[in-house]
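Q: What does the assembly look like in three dimensions?
Context provided by user:
Components: two
Sequences:
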Amino acid sequence: MEWILQGFATMLNLQNLLVAFIGCFLGTLVGVLPGLGPTSAVALLFPFTLQLTASQIMIGLGGIYYGAMFGGAITAILLNIPGEVAAVPTAIEGYPLARQGRGGQTMVICMLSSFTGGLVAMVCLAFFAPLLADLALKFGPFEYLALMLFSLSCVAGLGGGSVLKGFISAFIGLLMATIGVDINSNTYRLTFGSKLLLQGFDIVPIVVGLYGIAEVLEGILKMESSYIGKGEKKKFGSFLPNKRELKLAAPAAGAGAIVGTSIGILPGITPSVSAFISYSLAKRFGKEKEKFGHGAIEGCACAEASNNATAMAGFIPLMALGIPTGPVLAIVLAALIIQGVVPGPLMFSTYIDISATVIAGFFISNIILLILNIPLSGIWVKIANLPYKWMAPIILFLCVIGSLVIRNSIFDLWVMLLFGVFGFVAKKINFPIPPFVLGFILGNRLETYFRQTAVLGFDYMLSRPFALVVVFLACVMVAVFSRVKPAKAEIKQDKQA
Amino acid sequence: MNESKIKRVLQSYLHIVIAIFLGLIAILEGIRLRHELPYESFISGPGGYVFIVGIALLLFSLMSIINLQRKSLKEKSKNDKCQSGQESMQGNLAAGKPQNLFPTCLSFLLCIIYVALIKPLGFTLASIFYLASSLLLLRNSKKITILTCIVMIPILYLGLPAIGISVPKGILGF
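A: Here is the predicted structure of the complete assembly.
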């Protein structure tokens, strides 16, 4: 555990603390803006983090991620506007509590629950990620290929809507990643004689287009009949929860943290999925079942602990195996790859200092969020009430700067606009975007492992039982997902969000 | 064809058309690379992977088409059973409030003009032009538009270089 203490020592320098603080602040700021969730927040802000060191990137993006999630919870409680799907249970239970004049207490309970969730997942990250990384040292190309395919099939299957659409999306992502010069054979692929395509597409304009431009266009479309500012602003009341509330919330938060952490390691499980699972469990096993739907503090605590735990738990496979479980972590992976650090087993040997600082950074970010959000709640509510007609051009302008900073190339801006339209149309036709992003980001590595496996041949594949089991599991997942129809409740919740 | 019907057709078929188009391109690219690099093993070479991705895309498209056919057959048999119910459902769908795409399209058009103007005008001027026109388009008051632009000028001119972000300069030198 000495390495963790070393991480805290490194983390506690002014620069790292500033990165964590700014990350949490900006994440919450974007998170409270209507229509922008954690993925959009990370996509919009990650180009600006690329001048930092690898550990600072992870700390900054982690802060943005948690901040944006909590921003969604603040507006869910006080304005009945869940900034993202994961905050829907918080809105269902938190807003009635705010109407009863207990908004401040609910927010404190949610913050403490989020902190608990993050803490449990962080402890698991510190203990289990090195073990997983040790195991991963024995992995060959076929194991990695199998894990990536498993991850892609889970994300495609859980992406919402049709499984086939999810797979088409993932494979379009894989295809887009092949555009440009193939580094192994130095041949041009899918460039159609264009010099601009030789370098291929950069991830930044794609992600900014898909999550930034598309979200804003959608927001402008919805502006007339929008969800924006519809909630009735409530008084905070006291910030100090009473004993009874704490007694109810503590076990719910603990349970949510455990559920969120355990399922958060699996690819495709987003914080929203885990928030709903935990909320359903709390509803079923809670002490005050009759209060659910009318302001149950247990529901808020459980959902908030769970979604933060899932967000943090996703870093376990990302850091130990280099495999992201969802779009936000795929963006974090892309940022690290741009910096020349490829997450994987070496994160806990060669890059142990980075890992330790990052884990300490996550812990400190959670504390910063706790301290930051209570005094700033009033400001966040005011920001959430800013007119969208003013916010939209500013966000679009930020998207342009974000795409421009990487290579200073106008071509990247055209790519951003192209993928902005793609993302907008995809939303309209229920075409899932996360599998595309994951496919694009994993594309190059997946191809390398595929080609290495192909060179080693069929006999090699048969001699790797772990990889064969993972491939089998991926096939089982596909079969299961294609059989399961999206639950009515889930569709309803999505519509609400 | 009403709006909801167009949306349903697009929801069902657009991704298939795109997947078939991209799948065919990938397969052709794979074949081209196979002929260009005969010394490489096809599957482990640069063309094999692209070829396989293309085949997968075509396969998924085919499966989607089969799925849609099965669904439409099921719907047809349901329709025969309860035609009146379906009519009322279609009526409900058609009655859904149409969304006004005009401001969205115009905002996007402004983005295109903005990007096109960055090279000749420079980032700072193009950004001010974009912000002003976009804010006015979305019915912000003139006062707010002017104030936003005034605040943005020092941020663009001094703020961005201060944090190490270099932006394209135009004919006027900024």
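Follow-up: Chain B has two domains: 3-95, 102-162.
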